[in-house]
Amino acid sequence: MKMDVRKVMDEGWRMLASVILMGVAMLVFTVPNHIVPGGVSGLSTAVAELVPLKVGTVNFILSVIIEGMGCLNFGVKFVMRSLIISTGLSIFLNIFEGMIPAYTSDPLVAAIAGGAMFGVSCGILLGRGISSGGTDTITLIIKKYFPHVSVGKTLMLTDALVVLVSTIIFKNIDVAIYSAFTIFCSGQVVDKIVVGMDVAKLIYVITDSPEKIQNHLVEKMDLGVTVLTGKGGFSQTEKGVLMLAVRRPMFSAVLRAVKQLDVNSFVIVQDASEVWGEGFKEHNQGQ
Fold this sequence. Notes:
Blueprint: H1 2-30, H2 39-47, H3 55-74, H4 76-96, H5 107-126, H6 135-145, H7 151-170, H8 173-195, E1 200-207, H9 210-220, E2 226-231, E3 238-246, H10 248-261, E4 266-272
Antiparallel strand pairs: 1-3, 1-4, 2-3
Helix pairs in contact: 1-4, 1-5, 2-3, 2-7, 3-4, 3-6, 5-8, 6-7, 7-8, 9-10
Subcellular location: Cell membrane
Keywords: Cell membrane, Membrane, Transmembrane, Transmembrane helix
InterPro entries: DUF2179, N-reg_PII/ATP_PRibTrfase_C, UPF0750_membrane, YitT
């Protein structure tokens, strides 16, 4: 029971810190400079220009629509934490909009600073396997109906579409340029927080349900999995061992999926500074 309380408290402070950092980044750096950090928060910034609503309200409406679709496809548990984060962010934005001074002196500085804060915000969540939802949810829905679509490419395409739509709405090409800086900086910071200097995570899953988890990872998430066999040293029972390497965007989704499929699974995560092969570096790179 103590572990459950500790886990709830850990997730609670992470979500609160993430909401505050993301909210400050939007109100101080991105929204005043028409910079779009991708995802729902970026789309909310642009849509708020077209409707007589605050950014926080638009963010809440879009989040409810997206997480509602996620709920229909994956269940309530899948979207619960994402919806809590989205709601918290929307409330923060509506309360503090106009109260926190905006930085508009240099859009490039705003893009870099905003991206760094977004990166820290997302990294805090991903470090505990928590997803903020939004484009992650959209990507997984697309993956469900189009299994052969690459998750990584879908995530990039979604952010690119958000930036494109925002550029059209603001009628300014600078939006695309500075937004690209923000998204790049955010990704770099997340990498440093979640995987340090590493390009991927090496995950071992020791489970009594290897086929169920393997099928989900391969068929639903388009990930490569190596299947091993093992025996519990204490119980002396046969165990299935799944080994896979994943990039940052899929790290939290994999942990969440494993947990949902086998709550008693034993998961080991290691840093992988080099991964060669399909989906990562080609073997002729660097030669």
